[in-house]
Specification:
mainly alpha, 2 strands, single chain, about 75% helix
């Protein structure tokens, strides 16, 4: 299990690196668009649309890795105020609920992607592309998030009976 978790972590690190590269591309694209508009060359017409799509992809690519690193949004003040074992049980509850939500979003997301594909829906803005291209990463991301919740539960089962120490808001 440790070896599988290690390789899964490497995959998530690669997705985080890809998200960073996309952020760099978006930054360069916006900078080039502004520069070209200011010197009178008209700019890059699809830059806003591409930037919107990149922000969406950044969120999806980074989410599983951030969850793994404990860098997700987390309100832990209650966990720290409760007895350690109760906090540990609430960690279990949140991981189980997280996994269930991920399974639902995989199912729902797949249905949306499939419906978009079958209908031939197009995203028509400056660029024209099949809508399902934009929708497909969502269920895939929730598969990765769901897998990470299972790894979190495995780590929690092996840990001391107290709340996790990742992403603690107060010492």
């Amino acid at each position: 299990m440790a070896r599988l978790s290690h390789w899964y972590g490497r995959l998530l690190d690669a997705l985080l690196l890809l998200a960073c590269l996309l952020l760099l591309i978006m930054t360069l694209l916006i900078g080039a668009d502004v520069l070209l508009r200011n010197i009178g060359l008209g700019g890059i017409a699809p830059s806003n649309e591409i930037s919107e799509d990149i922000i969406y992809l950044l969120t999806l690519l980074a989410a599983p890795g951030l969850l793994r690193q404990g860098q997700h949004i987390r309100v832990d003040i209650v966990l720290r105020a409760l007895p350690a074992k109760v906090g540990w049980l609430l960690e279990w509850l949140s991981d189980i609920l997280g996994a269930i939500c991920c399974l639902y979003f995989v199912w729902y997301g797949w249905r949306v992607v499939e419906a978009s594909f079958k209908s031939g829906a197009l995203s028509i803005k400056t660029l024209i592309m099949p809508e399902w291209w934009l929708l497909a990463p969502m269920p895939l991301t929730f598969v990765l998030l769901g897998v990470e919740f299972f790894f979190r539960m495995h780590r929690l089962a092996l840990s001391e009976r107290r709340p996790r120490d990742d992403a603690v808001s107060a010492a």
